Amino acid sequence: MSLRLYMHPLAAYCHKGLIALYENGTPFHPHLVDLADDRQRAEFYALWPIGKFPVLDDRSRGCLVPESSIIIEYLARHYPGQVALVPADEDDAREVRFRDRFFDLYVMDPTQKVITDRLRPPGEHDRFGVAQARDKLRAALDLIEHEFVRDNGKRLWAAGHRYSMADCAASPALFYANFVIPLEDDHPQTAAYLLRLMERPSFARVLREAQPYLHMVPREPAEA
């Protein structure tokens, strides 16, 4: 098995890469890294000094591929399957890439800011940064909701009628965003979309594998 994915089951961007692998049944070896373990941390940083998950090691081609979007693009090119996560049409592909970046930058990133702030010790919270992140996240969710309402139920997936890399990105982004701003309150169409994503076998598998670790995600703000 030439593909090895360095990952952790809680990491949102690992979820994104795993979804792509599971969508096409691509054979790979999941290599779990515990960054709290000094030896594992040192080994991972020696491989990829940036120290961020996921990283795909393709030993048969001698390629080390970091970053979830690039991993999915790499798989689409060198290990294609029945589900074309990156469309062949250039305009469709550009739309998918835009929405992939939208979910990463405007949904997942501010969500991570809020959740990781909950892990800070008392007196070390970034209230201003968290407020900014919540505003950014709400603006992004409002845009997503507006598009689903505008399309009146005709659009099933992030970039249209076909499942794509954008949906791989949306899955963990919205799943964790729901811990910060409950979607059903003001974004019912987006909540319905998240349910479709969670019912997709690839993401359902990712969530099953993450289940033993999900209790580690702080649900409520820590006291300052």
Could you walk me through the main structural features you see in this protein, from its secondary elements to its overall organization?
This protein has 9 helices and 4 strands. By secondary structure, the protein is an alpha+beta fold. Strands 2-1-3-4 form a 4-stranded mixed β-sheet, with helices on one face. It folds into 2 domains: 3-78, Glutaredoxin, CATH 3.40.30; 90-200, Glutathione S-transferase Yfyf (Class Pi), Chain A, domain 2. Helix 1 (12-23) packs parallel to helix 3 (68-78), helix 1 packs antiparallel against helix 6 and helix 1 (12-23) packs across helix 9 (201-210). The mean pLDDT is 94.
Features:
four-stranded mixed beta sheet; 224 residues; Glutaredoxin; single chain; Glutathione S-transferase Yfyf (Class Pi), Chain A, domain 2; alpha+beta; 4 strands; 2 domains
**How many domains make up the coordinates?**
2
Q: Provide the β-strand percentage band.
A: 5-15%
Which word captures the global form? globular
Q: What's the helix-strand series?
A: EHEHEEHHHHHHH
The DSSP helix count reads 9
The largest β sheet comes out as: 4 strands, mixed
* SSE class: alpha+beta
Give the helix level as a range of percent: 55-70%
CATH architecture of the largest domain: Up-down Bundle
How many E strands? 4
Termini, distance in Å? 48 Å
